[in-house]
């Protein structure tokens, strides 16, 4: 019976390149250049805007009131809560709302977010969730991975609050809810359908890794 873990196992090398990217390791060691993190934060603001569109698409792709409410909750969480929190967090790193509102969108950001939206538009609700999964679930997994490493440096790490956000109970509860949702829908699919989902998941995972590299390179 396929599961979310089966998706990871089907693209293990790509998954590890994402989870264990140099950007992630430098975060955990506290050695990441401030300018790289600032570039990531700026682009992540633009990412969240597109992410909210993806949840709007999830509302449209839903088939019953339970799915509609779940997708709407995700949309409202981003629009009403997460974007404001991100803006406040950016202020702590010297990034103003005026700067955020006038940012050019990096190519890696465009590639990743438009791929998610395209996967959802061409497919069904499950396709969309699989495209979102490397972000929705992967951030919690990579934050856990950081804390498990012998080189992890919590003391005086300027990125500690970021790491702890994704190892916190609230994020992990949401992550587990998403894993359970995906597992329930993978339970009854055939091998051909699973391979289609593996392709979406693998592509999204690679694009997540490119997003980290964009942060390191400070590229547009």
From TrEMBL:
Give the E.C. number(s). 3.5.99.2
Task: Tell me the GO molecular function terms.
Answer: thiaminase activity
GO BP annotations listed: thiamine biosynthetic process; thiamine diphosphate biosynthetic process
**Keyword Hydrolase belongs to the record:** yes
Name the InterPro entries for this protein.
Haem_Oase-like_multi-hlx, Thiaminase-2/PQQC, Thiaminase_II, Thiamine_Salvage_TenA
Keywords, comma-separated and alphabetical: Hydrolase, Thiamine biosynthesis
Catalytic activity of the protein: 4-amino-5-aminomethyl-2-methylpyrimidine + H2O = 4-amino-5-hydroxymethyl-2-methylpyrimidine + NH4(+); thiamine + H2O = 5-(2-hydroxyethyl)-4-methylthiazole + 4-amino-5-hydroxymethyl-2-methylpyrimidine + H(+)
Q: Which Gene3D superfamilies match?
A: Heme oxygenase-like
What GO cellular component entries does it have? cytosol
Domain of life, source organism: Bacteria
Top-level EC class: hydrolase
Domain Thiaminase-2/PQQC span(s) in chain numbering: 11-217
Pathway terms, separated by semicolons? Cofactor biosynthesis; thiamine diphosphate biosynthesis
Please describe what this protein does: Catalyzes an amino-pyrimidine hydrolysis reaction at the C5' of the pyrimidine moiety of thiamine compounds, a reaction that is part of a thiamine salvage pathway.
Hey, which family's this protein in?
Answer: Belongs to the TenA family.
NCBIfam families noted in UniProt: salvage_TenA
Record protein name field: Aminopyrimidine aminohydrolase
Its source organism is Snodgrassella communis
């Amino acid at each position: 019976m396929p599961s979310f873990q089966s998706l990871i196992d089907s693209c293990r090398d790509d998954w590890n390149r994402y989870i264990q990217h140099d950007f992630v390791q430098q975060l955990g060691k506290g050695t990441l250049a401030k300018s790289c993190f600032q570039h990531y934060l700026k682009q992540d603001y633009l990412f969240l805007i597109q992410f909210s569109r993806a949840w709007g698409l999830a509302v449209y792709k839903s088939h019953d009131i339970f799915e509609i409410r779940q997708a709407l909750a995700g949309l409202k969480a981003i629009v009403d809560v997460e974007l404001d929190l991100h803006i406040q967090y950016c202020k702590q790193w010297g990034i103003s709302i005026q700067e955020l509102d006038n940012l050019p969108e990096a190519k890696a950001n465009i590639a990743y977010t438009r791929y998610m939206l395209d996967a959802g538009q061409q497919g069904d609700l499950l396709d969309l969730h699989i495209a979102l999964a490397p972000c929705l679930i992967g951030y919690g997994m990579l934050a856990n991975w950081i804390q498990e490493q012998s080189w992890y440096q919590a003391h005086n790490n300027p990125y500690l609050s970021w790491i702890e956000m994704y190892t916190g109970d609230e994020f992990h509860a949401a992550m587990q809810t998403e894993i359970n949702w995906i597992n329930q829908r993978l339970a009854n699919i055939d091998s051909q359908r699973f391979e289609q989902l593996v392709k979406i998941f693998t592509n999204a995972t690679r694009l997540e890794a490119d997003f980290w590299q964009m942060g390191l390179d400070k590229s547009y």
